[in-house]
Amino acid sequence: MTATLSNTTAPNTADYGGDEISALVLDPGYTVTRAGFAGEDVPKSVIPSFYGIVPSVNGPKHLYGENAVHTPLPNIEVGNPISQSGVVEDWDTATQLWEYAITSRLTNTKPSNPLTNGLNDKTNDLKQEMEGVETQEKPLDENPLLMSETGWNTGKGREKLIEIAIENWGSPAFWLARSGVLSA
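RESULT FIELD:
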């Protein structure tokens, strides 16, 4: 005999599968980038999509967030990785901006083992091994991701978004939805 689920009561966790992990929602736009957890009323992270570039001794430094653009700094250059039509023009900077939107307020950096954090390494052996690259920390390896895109995004743009979410961030599941469909 099969049990039917009522729409007035929550399903039993054994029937539902017990999945208590909330999906992350990322909505990049020209003026602001919004990020939050699925099922919540408002996004927890709303940051400007503009970023600042400040020259430094080690090369240009990118600044993200509210204070990065609004604080007057000498020689600051303000840019935006997304065009006014909503299409990404600078993928590297857009990726860093999205990571900042997610990790600044939604997820924290994971604590590392003090024995392997670099402070106790032997000074004569500092070569990076390629075998450990897959075990490096990825910002979204625990949460599925829903990301919005413009309706006129190209196929190559979609491929790049999927590549960033799955390969760079390690997202276990990814869904790309058009912003017009999400707002309807």
